[in-house]
């Protein structure tokens, strides 16, 4: 009997349909009567494989696209050399001083506030919020950050969540200097981790672990608890889950969109003329990344606070996520790509391959019945 | 101050072009070299299977394992020669030759029933039983004048696939 065996892999409702984006019909479906040629001709599948080898949309998202070198002629080169000297010998020391002063002020205020005001929570929280915003402003000043904010500033209200596209960890600092967000982040090692567990903990941050499977449910629960609280700091989520090079956006994870609250999109776009702010975590450590920023001329970017969105009736969380991704991508001039950012760390699930196989198998079986 | 093509000299480019029978232009070879270096993350001179599989579009392809066996350990020159069948300048003969090589896993110049069955299995997966696969393949072979024990050689493939309509082209993005 020509009964088709059903797929054993369960439908993964987690991701939108990649087939909507990929070229359809990679395995040629035979027309008319099935002949030897139809079975032997594997050229469409091979073409797709070769196309992926030559260029693919996923790797493009994580490539640091270097700016055009402009210093190659005899007039501009000395100018560029002078620029290097100014950046490394004048600006960099000044910035280090600014940052050190900032840290001193911050710590000398934060530590007393944190320990002495243990009982007066409301006042303590308010002061800690201001101090975190202060230290972030110092950080931004240490890269000569020129940030233009557009749109209404985030307000502290319950039942709302902020989502933004992600280019580097400095995204968080840039947003934090305007509003003390609570953030959900991967726990990092080293001095960053120390800062995370002390200062960021006080603004109410949530940690996750990419490699743990059960982690998702725990995190989802904590997210829900956080947004219920009326005087918790507004929550900032980067739904891409990884740093992307500020030319593309990868798929948004639906976690932020199924909390049943308003989603406020934030779009961030860096001006590459001054520095490429993309943090390629495979190539540099965060310290190196910061040093690179501190020896550049400036970090110039635009931040748009966009109109808050709600789940439309009949819309699934995944469609909602895609709609918000569309809003952010259009505003910041980014191209959308149908891949999950976590594919940086893992292989795609076999169900995509299975879907292609299923299509071809069905058409072959159809012809088996006809013969 | 230059881009990475400065690591590839003009002699290198010409040698590679020679090796692939001029199916790629010099600009395309430079672009392919940049891509090769991008994929070969640890810079060992060839792209490992893992590095190929880190391209999701490649990993979801049903024939990826087969192609990986052919791509294993290829240096840049051989990599370009491998892709030459997909150039718009490649002849129909070269394309059919490539397809034949994909089928002929043991490289003895003959494609047997089980070779064709293997590829059909890769393309249809678990959605059709082994028995049905054999049934379909036997039937179409007999209709084309062969039988289950026939061996197909390159000229047979040329006869079956060689008429017009075989499209196997990939564009190399040149900045």
SSE layout:
The complex is a heterodimer of chains A (371) and B (175).
Chain A: H1 36-40, H2 43-54, H3 57-61, H4 76-116, H5 121-142, E1 145-150, E2 160-164, H6 170-176, E3 182-186, H7 190-202, E4 206-208, H8 215-228, E5 235-237, E6 248-251, E7 262-270, H9 286-294, E8 299-305, H10 317-332, E9 335-340, H11 351-370
Chain B: H1 10-19, H2 26-39, H3 49-53, H4 56-59, H5 64-71, H6 76-83, H7 92-103, H8 113-124, H9 130-143, H10 154-161
Helix pairs in contact in B: 7-10, 8-9
If helices are DSSP runs of H or I spanning 4 or more residues, what is the number of helices of chain B? Answer: 10
Helical residues, percent of chain A: 40-55%
Give start-end ranges of low-pLDDT stretches of chain B: 1-6
Structural class by sheet pairing and helices of chain B: mainly alpha
* First-residue to last-residue Cα separation of chain A: 14 Å
Percent range for β-strand residues of chain B: under 5%
What's the pLDDT, averaged over the residues of chain A? 81
Order of helices and strands of chain B: HHHHHHHHHH
| Radius of gyration of chain B, CA atoms, in whole angstroms | 19 Å
CATH T-level topology of the largest domain in chain B: Recoverin, domain 1
* Protein structure class of chain A: alpha/beta
In what order do the strands lie side by side in the largest sheet of chain A? 1-8-7-2-5-3-4
Q: Whole-number average pLDDT of chain B?
A: 87
Number of domains of chain B: 2
The CATH architecture of the largest domain in chain B comes to Orthogonal Bundle
* Bulk shape of chain A: globular
Say what oligomer this is: heterodimer
Pfam family, one (chain B): EF-hand_7
Domain EF-hand (chain B): 91-126
InterPro entries (chain B): EF-hand-dom_pair, EF_Hand_1_Ca_BS, EF_hand_dom
Keywords (chain B): Calcium
Structure write-up:
The complex is a heterodimer of chains A (371) and B (175). In chain A, 33% of the residues are buried. The longest helix of chain A is centred in the N-terminal third of the chain and has 41 residues, at 76-116. Chain A contains eleven helices and nine strands. The radius of gyration of chain A is 25 Å and the shape is globular. Chain A is of the alpha/beta class and 371 residues long. In chain A, helix 7 (190-202) links the parallel strand 3 (182-186) and strand 4 (206-208). Chain A folds into two domains: 9-64 and 353-370, no CATH class; 146-339, no CATH class. In chain A, helix 4 (76-116) packs antiparallel against helix 5 (121-142). Chain A has helices at residues 36-40, 43-54, 57-61, 76-116, 121-142, 170-176, 190-202, 215-228, 286-294, 317-332, 351-370; strands spanning 145-150, 160-164, 182-186, 206-208, 235-237, 248-251, 262-270, 299-305, 335-340. In chain B, helix 7 (92-103) crosses helix 10. Chain B is built from ten helices and no strands. Chain B folds into two domains: 8-89, Orthogonal Bundle (Recoverin, domain 1), CATH 1.10.238.10; 90-169, Recoverin, domain 1 (Orthogonal Bundle), CATH 1.10.238. In chain B, 54% of the residues lie in helices and 0% in strands. Chain B is mainly alpha-helical and 175 residues long. The model of chain B is unreliable at 1-6 (pLDDT under 50). Classes of the chains: A alpha/beta (371), B mainly alpha (175). At the A-B interface, helix 1, helix 2, helix 3 and helix 11 of A face helix 2, helix 4, helix 5, helix 7 and helix 8 of B. Chain B: Residues 91-126 form the EF-hand domain. Chain B: This is EF-hand domain-containing protein. Chain B: Keywords: Calcium.
């Amino acid at each position: 009997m020509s009964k088709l065996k059903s797929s054993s892999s369960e439908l993964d409702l987690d991701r939108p349909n990649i087939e909507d984006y990929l070229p359809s019909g990679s395995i040629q479906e035979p027309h008319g009567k099935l002949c030897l040629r139809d079975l032997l001709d594997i050229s469409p599948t091979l073409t797709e494989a070769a196309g992926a080898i030559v260029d693919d949309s996923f790797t493009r998202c994580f490539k640091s696209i270097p700016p055009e070198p402009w210093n190659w002629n005899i007039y501009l080169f000395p100018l560029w050399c002078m620029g290097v000297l100014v950046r490394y010998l004048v600006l960099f020391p000044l910035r280090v001083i600014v940052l050190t002063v900032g840290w001193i002020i911050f710590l000398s205020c934060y530590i007393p506030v944190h320990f002495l005001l243990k009982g007066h929570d409301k006042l303590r929280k308010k002061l800690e919020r201001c101090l975190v915003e202060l230290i972030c402003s110092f950080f931004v000043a240490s890269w000569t950050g020129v940030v233009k904010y557009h749109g209404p500033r985030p307000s502290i209200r319950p039942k709302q969540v902020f989502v933004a596209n992600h280019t580097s960890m400095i995204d968080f600092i840039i947003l934090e200097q305007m509003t003390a967000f609570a953030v959900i982040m991967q726990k990092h090692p080293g001095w960053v981790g120390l800062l995370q567990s002390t200062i960021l903990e006080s603004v109410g941050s949530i940690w996750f672990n990419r490699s743990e499977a059960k982690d998702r449910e725990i995190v989802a629960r904590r997210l829900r608890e956080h947004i219920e609280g009326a005087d918790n700091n507004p929550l900032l989520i980067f739904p891409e889950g990884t740093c992307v090079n500020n030319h593309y956006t990868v798929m948004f994870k639906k976690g932020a969109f199924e909390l049943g609250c308003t989603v406020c999109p934030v779009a961030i776009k860096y001006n590459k003329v001054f520095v490429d702010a993309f943090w390629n975590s495979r190539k540099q450590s965060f310290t190196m990344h910061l040093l690179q920023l501190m020896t550049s001329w400036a970090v110039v970017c635009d931040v748009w606070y966009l109109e808050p969105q709600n789940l439309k009736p009949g819309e699934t969380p995944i469609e909602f996520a895609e709609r918000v991704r569309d809003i952010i991508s259009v505003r910041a001039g980014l191209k959308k790509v149908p891949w999950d950012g976590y594919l940086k760390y893992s292989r795609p699930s076999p169900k995509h391959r299975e879907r292609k196989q299923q299509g071809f198998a069905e058409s072959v079986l159809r012809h088996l019945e006809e013969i | 101050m230059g881009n990475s093509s400065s690591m590839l000299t003009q002699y290198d480019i010409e040698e590679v072009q020679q090796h692939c029978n001029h199916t790629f232009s010099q600009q395309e070879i430079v672009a392919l070299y940049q891509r090769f270096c991008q994929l070969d993350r640890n810079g060992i001179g060839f792209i490992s299977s893992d590095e190929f599989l880190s391209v999701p579009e490649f990993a979801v392809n049903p024939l990826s394992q087969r192609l990986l066996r052919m791509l294993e350990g290829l240096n840049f020159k051989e990599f370009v020669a491998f892709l030459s069948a997909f150039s718009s300048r490649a002849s129909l003969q070269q394309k059919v030759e490539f397809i034949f090589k994909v089928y002929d896993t043991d490289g003895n110049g003959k494609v047997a029933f089980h070779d064709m069955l293997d590829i059909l299995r890769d393309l249809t997966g678990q959605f059709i039983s082994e028995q049905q696969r054999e049934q379909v393949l036997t039937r179409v072979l007999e209709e084309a004048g062969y039988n289950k024990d026939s061996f197909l050689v390159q000229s047979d493939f040329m006869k079956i696939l060689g008429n017009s309509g075989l499209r196997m082209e990939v564009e190399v993005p040149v900045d």
